[in-house]
Amino acid sequence: MATATSSAMRFICMLFVSAHVAGQIRYSIPEELDHGTFVGNIAEELKIKIRELSSRKLRLIPDVTRKYLALNLQSGILFVNERIDRDQLCGQSSFCSISYKIALDNPLEMHSVVVEITDVNDNSPSFSKYDFTLRISELIASGTRFPLESAQDSDVGTNTISSYQINPNENFDLKVQKRSNGDIIAELSLRKSLDREQQSTFHLVLMAVDGGIPQRTGTAQLIVSVVDVNDNVPVFDHELYRAKIQENALKGTLVTRVSAVDLDEGTNAELIYSFTSHTSQTTQELFNVDLETGEIRVEGILDFEQCNIYELGVEAMDKGPYALSGHTKIMVELIDLNDNIPEIQVTSLSSTVSEDAQIGTALAAISVNDPDSGENGHVRCDVDRNLPFKLQQVLLNNYNLVTKDTLDRETVSQYNISIIASDRGTPPLSTRKHITITVSDINDNAPKFAQASYNVFLTENNTPGVSIFAVTAVDTDLDPNAELSYSVMDTQIQDASLTSFITINSESGILFAVRSFDYEKLKKFEIKVQAQDAGFPKLSSTTIVNIIILDQNDNAPVIASPLLKNNAAFLEIERSLLYPGYLVTKIIATDADSGQNMRLSFQISESTYPNLFDVGLQSGEIKIIRNFNNEDSAIQQIVVLVKDNGQPSLSCTATLVVSVLGNITERNVRKLPQAGKFSQFSELNVYLIIIFGSTSFIFLTIIILLLALKCKQSSDDSFGENRCCLPCRNRASRNHFDRAAVRQEMVNCSGVTPTLPITETYYHPSRVSSESFKSDFLFLQPTMPVNDGHARSTIVRK
């Protein structure tokens, strides 16, 4: 009877729940069906085309361990997968069902399927024993009823026991009652008083009949023994006792106390309390009755969720020779406590989500359950509000986890989401379930260089193929989206492709020099480096790399003035001009390098008389530092060393041969001896040179006078009379110098071909006179004629 009451309550609860669940699919099938029996068409119920079932990933999620039903994923047909024994599955519950969830993706949907299992009459009623003995006093009045052993039937509803019968007799008949839980009980009613002397024993056949089609029956032998003397039965204070206790009541907790009175005396009035046979064995394990006091106490563990009302049958039996008993009922109601933590179940979990997922994208289906009742079983579910996710309710206690904000993997790549389910009990109970969502990457970040531009300083004469610099870009994306390749954007440098100057390693970003650079030809150039990822679409960025060539001291100084022949220059100076401070000449040299590498210094490395001449360290001016004595040689040799300030220093030398002339003007047209051999000249040689020079000088003077007279007559420019002679003289001597000779002399000194710098007109005061005509040409460089037909002598200045 207690089991039937519990089943009825569960049926009422399920009806209450079903009234609040939207979109529920219901079927009803009998138990014991064969495998493969059709139950229903899920695709038709959900109005889904069969061709869409595969793409939407239709699946069946059972709420029970055993898979009694199965779903054909191609047709959407729900069918019986294994034999269903309702009695084993639901026991005596009046309502028996199997619940499933139907899940679909794209978009995510959850539907509830409830399949009711109806009972078939496959069990006959049965008694616990074949025969029962009932002792009845002969003094019992007519109409007295005696409870009989109830039969058990595993079926439910109309298939369970519907009535009891006994074989016809004149002393007894059978009274059948229906209890509050729906159980049928039989009581033997005394039709007329018994007379032990007439008949002391009655043999009756008790039959239990169920309401199934066809009907099934079960029988037991009932032996009625007539007892004499003890003619008063115990009587309880109440026919029905009611009690309420909490479901967590401890063992030994007093539930209630029953009391009965027997009007007999002595042992016939001494009572013993016990449970009647109508009290199930399960109930007797949960409660205990004291034999003497009639106190009902808790014996086992109570659980409101298993059963919330218990009905106990208690009898009081006296100790007379022929014991008599009285009967009463106790209704024990359990008070529900919030002793069950809500349960969370996560299905259809998608562990990854793209960072460009739209708001509202479903990631998981979540269901919650709390077996408590009332507010104790009312569950609310939520997630942390600081996360870009929320729960969206789709059914009662069913939610979808969806995105509520945009995602950025570079900001947060993984989320640990805590799903919190809390009931409304006092105190409230809650549970958490953690799921991890990983944000997958898309190519939404372009590579970035640390700097918009870089300056790379590279010394000239570098070794080709050596790395000179490395650029590095960073891409905050992942995997192929962050795999970078570097390239140089091709441009033209000095009419040549950039790739003939610089190349780059596409993986490491290391720049390599393809050739050796020459500072004197290329001082600086710019390249644009691009970093591109491997994502789709590809993203890229660029940076500028300025390659600055640094000078190396790889060019020796070159003597530009005076002009050298065989690394020597020949000068003639009148003796009267040799006074301290007199400027003999100025050494002008150039260096193709730059900076300190082109900073030149001058010094006299060799001299016939070291104390006669001096050279300016920076200016290169050679001056007389003392008066010329008669003891001094008429021919002086000076070796000037010109060196730069590089490391290591490079240098060149120039030999100046200075011929000191007497006060009488002489023309020196002879070829002077080479440096180092003047000491071998004899006095006769000197006289011969003077005679030859004088003769030549007179001849040249006549020619110059004729040219000067012609120049004066034809000149119409702004130059004065004194300046006219110089260009005429230069034109007359142009045969002695040419540019090819100058460049050849520079090659002989330094080994490299110099680039002549800008020149300016230079007039030496000692060269204006015709006496020093030849020596002027030794350090003056001719220039191209100007519009007036004159030429100007120039010297190279640093």
Compose a concise summary of this entry.
With 798 residues, the protein is mostly beta strands. The chain is built from 8 helices and 53 strands.
CATH class of the largest domain: Mainly Beta
Structural class: mainly beta
CATH topology of the largest domain: Immunoglobulin-like
Rounded mean pLDDT score: 79
Largest sheet: 4 strands, mixed
How many domains, as an integer?
6
Instruction: Write the CATH homologous superfamily of the largest domain.
Output: Cadherins
Shape: rod-shaped
Q: Please compute the radius of gyration using only Cα atoms.
A: 64 Å
Spatial separation of the terminal alpha carbons: 126 Å
- How many DSSP E strands? 53
Can you offer a commentary on this structure?
With 798 residues, the chain is mostly beta strands. It has six domains: 2-118, Cadherins (Immunoglobulin-like); 124-228, Cadherins (Immunoglobulin-like, Sandwich), CATH 2.60.40; 237-271 and 285-304 and 314-337, Cadherins (Immunoglobulin-like, Sandwich), CATH 2.60.40; 343-440, Cadherins (Immunoglobulin-like), CATH 2.60.40; 448-550, Sandwich (Immunoglobulin-like), CATH 2.60.40.60; 558-796, Sandwich (Immunoglobulin-like), CATH 2.60.40.60. The chain is 12% helix and 38% strand. The protein contains eight helices and 53 strands. The strands form 17 sheets. The chain has a four-stranded mixed sheet with strand order 1-7-6-3, with no helix packed on it. The protein has a four-stranded mixed sheet with strand order 8-14-13-10, with no helix packed on it. Strands 16-23-22-19 form a four-stranded mixed sheet, with helices on one face. A hairpin with a 5-residue loop joins strand 39 (502-504) and strand 40 (510-513). Helix 5 packs across helix 6. It is rod-shaped. The two termini are 126 Å apart.
